[in-house]
Specification:
The protein is mainly alpha-helical. The protein is built from 7 helices and 8 strands. The chain has a 3-stranded antiparallel β-sheet. A 3-stranded antiparallel β-sheet has the order 6-7-8, with no helix packed on it. A two-stranded parallel sheet has the order 4-5. Helix 4 packs across helix 5.
Length: 377
Amino acid sequence: GDLVKEREIALEKFNQRIEFEGQELSRVEGEVRESADSLKELEESVEDNARSLEECRQNIERLKATIEASYQAEKDADERYNSMIAEREKLQKGQKELFVKREELSEKRTSLDAEIARLSMRRDQAQSSLESQINYMWNEYEITLSHAQEMRDPELTDASAMRKTISQLKDAIRNLGDVNVNAIEDYRVLMERYTFTKTQHDDLIEAEKELQGIIEELDTAMRRQFEEKFKEISVEFDKVFKELFGGGKGTLELMEDEDILEAGIRIIAQPPGKKLQNMNLLSGGEKTMTAIALMFAVLKAKPTPFCILDEVEAALDEANIDAFARYLRQFTDTQFALITHQKATMEYADVLYGVTMPEQGITRVLSLKLGDHFDID
């Protein structure tokens, strides 16, 4: 038991020593860190001192350059000063010369003022003489100075000869007697009217030529189009004629020896089994069928979207009405409105409309779609 207690005491001392040593070690480490910081500060201080020393050296160099520049500036200033002294002496000399020249100019100006006064007097005299001459020209000849300058002839230099000519002209004017002073103005007005009228006349002549050219172009185009359409209608007329009559031949011809735009048209119809003959020799029904064939030929050559037929088949019998109505159904691009009393025609219609008056003054319209009952509108 005593051994254990001694060891515990020894262990406690050892732990205390370890703790002491640890504290000592911490203290030493702290001092090391402080020394390192101090060393770092000293190094930074050395660097700052080196920079300051370099800046001082640079300032010394700048001061040396400034001193040298000042020496040079002083030298340049001395040179400029000497130059300015020389320039001043030169200017003083020039000033003396200018004073001498000013005296000379003053004397010359006095002389010129006297000459100006003399010339001014002469100018006033000349102006007075000019005004007198201008008044004379106006009073004697009614012309202004500018007008007289326009009429000036450099070759007329003999004053006595000109006075003689003037006297002769005045005598000639007096011998003329009374003169129409408005003749020039009348001539101007008449000339303007003539020029305006002549311009209008020329414009009308030119317009007439242009219109004649346009008329000739239109006439040529109309003739060409008429010939083309007439040939086309002639071909279609023969086709339609054969379909409506079940054969035969239909022909369209222009009258000979006449202008194509004013010529009459001869219609020759030859129903099947008959000789070629003129329209006037056909029966009423054949004439109607021929006219219907011509109408259909025109519609085929130039289709129209809508067409109204007013009892065109009134003179036909039922067989021809049936042929007419069946052929009418072939025109799918044209809508037909037929006014008719023929029952055979009504059978081919899509819609029928009738008008009745069951009571006096009351009109009703009846409509019927094929296959439907009558509706009263």
